[in-house]
Amino acid sequence: MPLLTEAAKGVYVIAVTPFLENGDVDWTSVDRMVDFYEEKGVTGLTILGQLGEAPKLTSEESKEIARRVIARAKVPVVVGVTAPGLAPMRELADSVMEMGAAGVMVAPPWTTKTDDQAYGFYASVGDALGKTPWVLQDYPLTTNVTIAPKVIDRIIKDVPTCVMLKHEDWPGLSKITALRASSEKGETRRISILCGNGGLFLPEEMARGADGAMTGFCYPEMMVGVVENYAKGDIDRAHDIFDAYLPLARYEQQQGIGLASRKYVLAKRGVISSGALRKPGASLSKLDIIDVERLLARQAKRLAEIGA
């Protein structure tokens, strides 16, 4: 599989990790999930991310999931390798790259407080990972680390193996604008920018110069439709598709039950056998399920109205 480059674009969906009701990894659903995402037109897969419940996996489970997905996938696979130290990060990165991963993704430690610390951390990541291409995960809402555009520009200039920004700042549209201005002026390389936050701002992010999405949603075809239509200049169609799915995407962004609702719908769609989260994890109440079912019904109605 080709390595990740600055030219990456499209939808690299953040994959869930399927579990059985007893908490074991559901390997059959892992296979079915990979096939489902590819059938929906995604450009790539990103595994072992925050919403893939990576912190709840053992190191052996993480490697086995990576091996299983990479072996089955026909699209590039990016693997989250964030760890408390550089040694375990490098160990997992080396392992998944040998399996055929396209690249890895790294979030900063919560102890990062200053611009120099953020730069120093990612400079050390570049040194530790060698030739492995990697994604800078910028997700302040979870990491509590804010990385200013000028710091990202500095990392891009000095660390050539940083080929993508996973942009999840919120609000963050001005950050995309600033980064694109730097590359357009020739001050930095133009790297790929794929956006997260469940796709809540995807049309606006595309308008600011993003190359696509790297996030999860129980209907990945929404993100595929928005990105493809934006790329061919049909902006109104991109917004029509986005608007039809927005209420459910918004519901998924709730802390706690958001992932539970995503897995509930994926199970309902036959992608995974159970919507279970590995403990500790939230579960949907009867009223939550009523909410989701109402949103699904209204979504189906709206999609029929716009012929999507």
From TrEMBL:
It comes from the Bacteria. GO terms for cellular component: cytosol. InterPro entries: Aldolase_TIM, DapA-like. Keywords: Lyase. GO terms for molecular function: 4-hydroxy-tetrahydrodipicolinate synthase activity. The keyword Kinase does not apply. Pfam families: DHDPS. Pyruvate binds at M214. Belongs to the DapA family. This is Dihydrodipicolinate synthetase. The lineage of its organism: Bacteria, Pseudomonadati, Pseudomonadota, Alphaproteobacteria, Hyphomicrobiales.
